[in-house]
Structure formats: C-alpha cells, structure tokens
Amino acid sequence: MTEWTYTLKFRSSVSIFSGLAVAGLVDRMVMRNHKGLPFIPGSSVKGRWRFFAERLLQNGGLPDDLKIHKTGEPLCKNLKSRCTLCKLFGNPAFPSMLLVGKAELDETLKGHFENLLKQNPNPVNHPDTELRPGTAISRITGTTLKNHLFFNEAVPPVIFTGKLIINGTLNDNEEKFLRASARLVDRIGGRKSVGMGGLDGGIRIASKGGAE
Ligand SMILES: [Zn+2]
C-alpha cells in the first residue's frame, strides 16, 4: 500500500453541490464537513480523473502494458487480464486500486475559513463562500423567465488537499500513467460554460514527504 497526497489549486470558484438548499434563498449549497468547512468528495475527483485516464488510453501511443478494453465492449471481468483502466479505477466487478480521499481546505487556509464562519454564523449566506446568481432563459422567447432567478453557493479559488491510497503495487508505467492523466484534469465540478472549477496544473500528486 502506498500513500500519496494530492493538491487541487483552483483558478476559478468551485461548486460541488450537496443537494441541500435553503428554500427560496439559496438554491444549491456546497458540501461541508462536520466543522462546517467546504470539501470536495473523493468521488468527484476520481470521476474526472478516470475520464482523462480513459481518453489517454484510447488515444494510444502508450507502452504496450498499458491497455484498455475495446470501446463499446463490456468492462473487464477477468482479474488477471483486466485492462489498466479497470485495474486502477475499478469497475463493478473489481475494487479500484486507486482510492481517492476527500479534498479538504489546505491546512494554511482552515484557520481563516473557521474565523470567517465564527464571525458570522449565518445559516444562509455563509461568509466563506460567494453566492452566484443565475437566471433561467426561456427557450421560446429567449428572454429571462420571471421568478427564475437562482443562487448557487461557490467556494472562491483556493487550494484543497487530499489523500490517495494505492492498494497494491504499481509498476513504473502505471505510476507514470496515473501521474500524467492526473495532470490533464482541467476542472472539477461546476459548469464549463461559466468557467467554474478550473484547475491550475490538474490534480497535482506529491509522494509522501516530497512535493513534485
Ligand atoms: Zn477494462
């Protein structure tokens, strides 16, 4: 088992919604831990990472031992011959070798966020986030619909860190592939159309004790 840490350095505000809302006030709120601090679930990070890993494998040109099941064919069911994607990221038949922990605010920022929340424990408009208004546009008239203004909560561009666990042993090519596909991740959460959740440098991996 190997443990790495990863860093997400956001260029733009980020929203991973919890499904919580305050009726009539804030339509979608970000996820928070037991201390009330925003976090990003590991599944959101891993989902985007898997997407880029799959694309990289499909593009080809990689060492022969890095392979992927054919597009449109069922996911690998044989433990010994499963492809790199199914091995590293898992599929319904096998657990994932790569475990992605939730990304929490970087240690250097937690105190600042906690102070903001203490100063103004407002359950609706959290002082550590911004509310981004939006409107719904009528598809028929192309104009703004009445009574369809909404507010989404977003965390300003800051740094989040989390843990990665490799359950097993990666060979050199697999490790290089994981790191390369991580760097390709362009954004997490939010909507591309409004430029949210943009990452600077992708998912940045540091081996324990040493930054890359
Ligand atoms: Zn596969």
Task: Give a summary of the structure in a few sentences.
By secondary structure, the chain is α+β, with helices and mostly antiparallel strands. The protein is built from four helices and eight strands, in the order ββααββαβββαβ.
Structural class: alpha+beta
What's the total count of β strands? 8
Radius of gyration based on Cα positions:
20 Å
Ligands in the model, by name, code or SMILES, are: zinc ion
Count of all domains: 1
Please work out how many helical segments DSSP would assign: 4
Percentage of residues in DSSP E strands: 15-25%
Helix content: 10-25%
**Uncertain spans:** none
The mean pLDDT is 86
SSE order, as H and E?
Answer: EEHHEEHEEEHE
Outline the biggest β-sheet: 6 strands, antiparallel
CA-CA gap between termini? 20 Å
Write a structural description:
- The chain has about 210 residues and is an alpha+beta fold.
- The protein has one domain (about 1-115, about 130-205).
- The protein is about 25% helix and about 20% strand.
- The strands form two sheets. Strands 1, 2, 3, 4, 7 and 8 form a six-stranded antiparallel sheet that branches. It has a two-stranded antiparallel sheet with strand order 5-6.
- The chain is globular and about 55 Å long.
- The relative contact order is 0.28.
- It binds zinc ion (ZN).
- The site of zinc ion has 7 residues, from α2.
